[in-house]
Here is the input.
Amino acid sequence: MVLSTDFYALVAQIIPVLLLTGIIEMRAVSQRWAEPTLPTWVVLGFLVGMLLIILGEVSALWVVSNGAENALVLFGALFGIGVAGSFAALPLVDTVLDWAAPAEKRASWLQRLGTAAALTPFAAAMVALIAASAA
Here is the structure.
């Protein structure tokens, strides 16, 4: 696999965006870490999600720079971009629900939203993977 110089230029451009997103997300999660009710698997899940975001974004950049038709790379790109958008939206949704609902209701909504946010890009990526394989 030979990567073009465009790929490295694109990765260099997106690193500040990834760092800024990571700082915002870690700040939002650190507020939750102070609560003793936050399970460890939630924190680990968040960190795994951040890794998926980075892998997906790099895959997307590779697709853009090299015009790859590899279905697995397309899958990783779509999934990573979807997860990135989902994680970026969660602090905003949490803030809105904090204004609008009691804590128990907010937690229930966030669990449902988190499940949907994780499954929706996965489903979209699977459809794209099947379509790319069939083509």
